[in-house]
Design goal:
With 338 residues, this protein is α/β, with parallel strands linked by helices. It is built from eleven helices and 15 strands. The strands form three sheets. Strands 3, 4, 5, 6, 7, 14 and 15 form a seven-stranded mixed sheet that branches. Strands 10-9-8-11-12-13 form a six-stranded parallel sheet, with helices on both faces. A two-stranded antiparallel ribbon has the order 1-2. Helix 4 crosses helix 10.
Length: 338
């Protein structure tokens, strides 16, 4: 079966190309993709050929072509022997790719969308949102604890909503871009701040009655991590969700972590169980199902995060803007437009 997919054919270059997919085998399904979502940080690192992209192989040689696009939604068109899904099922596809159709393992790549009222564009963001949910779970927020979300790209915007849903109060959101701060207020932040302004840490401490007890750092910059540490209360917990890929960045560990007893928790999305969830650590599949329940109940809002929807034919222009840091949060490809 022929399909179309977006491929990074060489550094800084995205193209829409032809591809072939096989019919589903045992336990597999073929899904016609409706929408796929761009994960800006990861896809920027991959299209540029960043050698520090792989956790287990730092400075690995970048190899092209590369195919990305791990958060999508669509409709099952064919099910293989033993698959529980059936044609017509609406599903989230995780660890897939930017493609018009895909054949994947049912167990390891799809979650059924039980509520027919959840729009497919919103459902396509669920895998990306699971990254933020894992980070929020790891800081173990308790009702009434204060929280800081440092960086308000799409992962930070998800984290704001999830900290609020978890009972954090206040939820303080920080980003130098005014539009992102306004969106965070719309999505439930109690206060927003520009971290480049003077006395930023003092302002956070004032808003949080002496320092935040929990934080999600998602700037992907060492400077953002240090600023977040300066805002922490004694014995606070901070999750590193952003990918800080500079191995040479230094921190005053003695004064900023060791002395105040700060727990720093790695929250890369692969730092989770693959088969069975347990408290604070859920699988991708279970986190995505939980996010769909939260969406269905109206406790979180993905619609407000969708800024642009493009035809895959526009991929070269879209990724050119990504390379220039010109894309807003929440950019999707609409595969039905082909």
């Amino acid at each position: 079966m022929k399909t179309k997919q977006i491929v990074f054919t060489k550094p800084n270059t995205a193209e829409l190309t032809d591809a072939e997919i096989c019919p589903p085998g045992a336990g597999e399904v073929t899904v016609k993709i409706a929408y796929s979502a761009i994960s800006a940080g990861t896809e920027r690192a991959n299209i540029t050929g960043d050698k520090n992209i792989h956790i287990g192989a730092p400075e690995a040689q970048a190899v092209f072509p590369r195919v990305l696009g791990y958060s999508a939604s669509g409709i099952v068109t064919e099910a293989g022997p033993g698959a529980a899904s059936k044609p017509g099922d609406r599903v989230v596809v995780y660890w897939g790719r930017h493609t018009s159709a895909i054949t994947v393992s049912e167990h390891g790549h799809i979650v059924r969308i039980e509520d027919d009222k959840i729009p497919l564009p919103e459902a396509s963001l669920a895998m990306i949102a699971s990254f933020s949910l894992a980070a929020v779970r790891k800081i173990r927020p308790e009702i009434g604890e204060s929280s800081l979300v440092m960086g308000l790209g799409i992962l930070g915007q998800f984290a704001v909503q999830l900290c609020r849903a978890a009972g954090c109060c206040p939820v303080i959101a920080a980003d130098p871009i005014a539009q992102r701060r306004s969106l965070a207020l719309q999505l439930g932040a109690d206060a927003v701040l520009d971290p480049t302004e003077p006395d930023f840490a003092a302002k956070v401490r004032s808003l949080s009655r002496g320092g935040v007890q929990t934080a999600v750092e998602v700037t992907g910059r060492g400077e953002g991590f240090v600023q977040a540490l300066d805002c922490m209360a004694k014995l606070g917990r901070i999750a590193l969700l952003g990918c800080t890929r500079d191995p040479n960045f230094t921190v005053d560990y003695y004064r900023k972590i060791h002395g105040p007893g700060i727990s720093v928790i790695g929250a890369h999305t692969l730092a989770r169980p693959s088969e069975e969830s347990y408290p604070g650590h859920w699988t991708h599949r279970d986190d995505i199902a939980a996010l769909l329940r939260l969406l269905s109940s109206g406790r979180i809002n993905f619609g407000a995060l969708i800024s642009e929807i493009h035809s895959p034919r526009e991929a070269p222009e879209v990724y050119s803007r990504l390379l220039k840091n010109e894309l807003p949060v929440g950019v999707l490809f609409d595969w039905s437009s082909l």
